[in-house]
Automatic annotation (TrEMBL):
The keyword Cell inner membrane does not apply. PANTHER family: SLIT RELATED LEUCINE-RICH REPEAT NEURONAL PROTEIN, TIR DOMAIN-CONTAINING PROTEIN. The keyword Metal-binding does not apply. Keywords: Signal. Residues 1-20 form the signal peptide. This is Leucine-rich repeat domain-containing protein. It comes from Bacteroides oleiciplenus YIT 12058. It comes from the Bacteria.
C-alpha cells in the first residue's frame, strides 16, 4: 500500500478564504480595520494581541502602530498590510529609538521591526516570517526589518520598486516576491539588485512521500506544478528520479528542507545554477555530495552544516557559491575530498 501525506500551503490571499470555508478561520488569524492611525492597540487586549500569528490590517496606520506591532504581538508570523495606508507621524511615540522623528507617509518606518535593546545592540522581531506590503509603498526605511532573522518572504504589491534604505532588509535571509512583469524594475534599482526577486505569489509545499520516485505526482496531486514551488520540505523516501525533478523542473527554489528524508547522497549537479536558493537543510543520514552539486548557487549563504556521516564531497561541489561563508563538517569521516570545492582557490571547509 502506498502511504502518503501531503500538506501544501499556497501563500495567496485566497488561501485564508479557503481555510475559512472548510474549517473556520484559525484562532491565530485576525483582520482589523483601523479607522484612525495610531489606534490599533486600543482595539484589542494584550492577551489577544499575543494570540495572533497571522494579522491583516486595513485602513490607516502610522509609526505608533508599528511600534506596538514590533514590541507586542509576541507571536506574529505573517503581517499583511497590502490594503492599508501609512500616515505621516511626527513625535517620540514611533519606532525610532528614543527621539523625536518625522515619519513620511506610505513608508515602512525606520526601525519598524528592529528594537534597540542597549546602547549599541538592536534586535529584530524573530517571529516575523512574512510581510505583504501595499502598492502605495514609497520607501522601506532605515533598519525597518534589521535583525528579523526569520523573515523569509517580503511580498511587495508595487510594480515599480520602492526605495530600499540601508539595512532595511537582509538579502541573505529574505526573498522578494513582486507582481508579474515587474522584476526588472526591482533588479535595476539600487539595493534591490542583490536580492532573490521572483515574480508571482510565494508557494510553499510540505510533502511526505511513501513511495520512491513519486515526488512529482505528489505535488501535482496537491495542485502544484514543480516549477512554481519556492519553499519545499520533503520527508520520506527520495530516489534519483526525485532529485532529477528537483534539478530540472524546480528553478525557483528559495529554500529546501531535506533533513527528514532518507537520502544518503546529493547527486551531481542537483542544485546547479539555482539562482534563488538561499538555504538548504541536508538529509540527516547524508553520506556524500556529488560533483558540482551546488555549483553556481550564488545566493546560498551563511554557514552550511554537514551531517556527521558525510564521507565524500566531490569535485567543485560548491563552486561559485560566493556568499557561502563556511561549510562545517561535524564529523571526522570525510575520506574523499574533491579538488576545487569552491572554485576560487580558497577552502571554506572547516571541521568542528
Amino acid at each position: 500500500m502506498k502511504i502518503k501525506k501531503v500538506f501544501t500551503i499556497i501563500m495567496l490571499a485566497a488561501c485564508t478564504y479557503v481555510a475559512a470555508q472548510n474549517t473556520g478561520t484559525p484562532a491565530g488569524n485576525k483582520t482589523f480595520f483601523v479607522s484612525k492611525a495610531g489606534t490599533l492597540v486600543s482595539m484589542l487586549t494584550e492577551d489577544e494581541a499575543n494570540s495572533i500569528t497571522h494579522l491583516t490590517l486595513t485602513g490607516k496606520l502610522n509609526a505608533i502602530d508599528f511600534k506596538h506591532l514590533r514590541d507586542e504581538f509576541k507571536n506574529l508570523q505573517v503581517l499583511d498590510i497590502s490594503n492599508a495606508s501609512i500616515s505621516t507621524y511626527a513625535g517620540k511615540g514611533g519606532t525610532f529609538p528614543d527621539r523625536f522623528y518625522i515619519y513620511p507617509p506610505n513608508c515602512v518606518p525606520a526601525y519598524a521591526f528592529c528594537r534597540q535593546t542597549s546602547d549599541s545592540t538592536f534586535t529584530g522581531k524573530s517571529t516575523l516570517q512574512k510581510v505583504i506590503l501595499s502598492e502605495k509603498i514609497k520607501n522601506i526605511e532605515d533598519a525597518a526589518f534589521k535583525g528579523c532573522e526569520n523573515l523569509k518572504i517580503c511580498q511587495v504589491r508595487k510594480k515599480t520598486a520602492p526605495n530600499l534604505l540601508p539595512e532595511a532588509l537582509a538579502d541573505s535571509i529574505t526573498a522578494i516576491f513582486v507582481p508579474l512583469g515587474s522584476s526588472d524594475s526591482y533588479r535595476a534599482k539600487k539595493h534591490w539588485d542583490t536580492f532573490a526577486v521572483i515574480e508571482g505569489e510565494p508557494v510553499e509545499a510540505f510533502v511526505q512521500v511513501g513511495l520512491m520516485g513519486s515526488l512529482a505526482s505528489e505535488l501535482v496531486e496537491a495542485g502544484l506544478q514543480p516549477k512554481d514551488v519556492n519553499f519545499l520540505t520533503v520527508e520520506g523516501k527520495l530516489d534519483a528520479a526525485d532529485f532529477i525533478l528537483i534539478r530540472d523542473y524546480m528553478p525557483n527554489l528559495v529554500a529546501i528542507d531535506l533533513s527528514n528524508c532518507n537520502a544518503t547522497a546529493i547527486p551531481e549537479y542537483t542544485f546547479t545554477q539555482k539562482k534563488y536558493l538561499l538555504r538548504i537543510q541536508l538529509p540527516k543520514g547524508l553520506k556524500s555530495i556529488g560533483q558540482r552539486a551546488f555549483s553556481g548557487c550564488g545566493r546560498l549563504c551563511g554557514t552550511l552544516v554537514l551531517p556527521a556521516g558525510v564521507t565524500a564531497i566531490e569535485y567543485g561541489a560548491f563552486m561559485g557559491c560566493d556568499n557561502l561563508r563556511h561549510v562545517v563538517a561535524t564529523g571526522n569521516k570525510i575520506t574523499t575530498l574533491g579538488d576545487n570545492l569552491f572554485g576560487d582557490g580558497k577552502s571554506k571547509l572547516i571541521y568542528k
